[in-house]
Amino acid sequence: MRAAGIIGMVGAGVLGACAAPSVPDAAEAARVPVAVEGKAFLAEIGPGPQGVRFTPAGAVPVSGMRVSVRRSAVPLDYSEGRVAKQAAALACAAQGRRFDDTAHGRFAGAGVWEFAGACA
């Protein structure tokens, strides 16, 4: 009797696994190559902290995926936020998402610009 109960539970678990198809996680990270002004970039889109947008009333939270951008050849530097933001927007759009260009970006060092919460 005890073995029959265990076999029944195992059988139910196997059938349950067959009945519930796997759905890809919407928050999976993606690496997206893009080009801006003829230069190659690699953007990584994935879960991360909320970002902020600055308004006259103060900082407002921005919810979405984080976008980290690197240039393929010469590393980005602190003064290249505009081109990094363009690459981030292109990568976000390539994933079928909307890029919030009002989200504040930051130079993370080591040739990387990050836009927290900017890709929804």
| Fraction in beta strands | 35-45%
- Strand-pairing-aware structural class: alpha+beta
Strand order, biggest sheet? 1-2-5-7-6
Largest sheet: 5 strands, antiparallel
Give the SSE order as H and E letters: HEEEEEHEE
Arithmetic mean pLDDT: 84
Which oligomeric form is depicted? single chain
Number of domains: 1
Q: What is the number of beta strands?
A: 7
What share of the residues lie within helices? 25-40%
Give the count of helical stretches.
2
Low-confidence stretches: 3-25
Topology:
Layout: H1 2-19, E1 30-36, E2 39-46, E3 51-55, E4 58-62, E5 65-71, H2 81-94, E6 105-109, E7 112-119
3D architecture notes:
The chain has helices at 2-19, 81-94, and strands spanning 30-36, 39-46, 51-55, 58-62, 65-71, 105-109, 112-119. By secondary structure, it is an alpha+beta fold. The protein has one domain (30-119). A 5-stranded antiparallel sheet has the order 1-2-5-7-6, covered by helices on one side. Strands 3-4 form a two-stranded antiparallel ribbon.
Summarize the structure.
By secondary structure, this protein is α+β, with helices and mostly antiparallel strands.
Keyword list:
single chain; 38% strand; five-stranded antiparallel beta sheet; 120 residues; disordered N terminus; alpha+beta; two-stranded antiparallel ribbon; globular
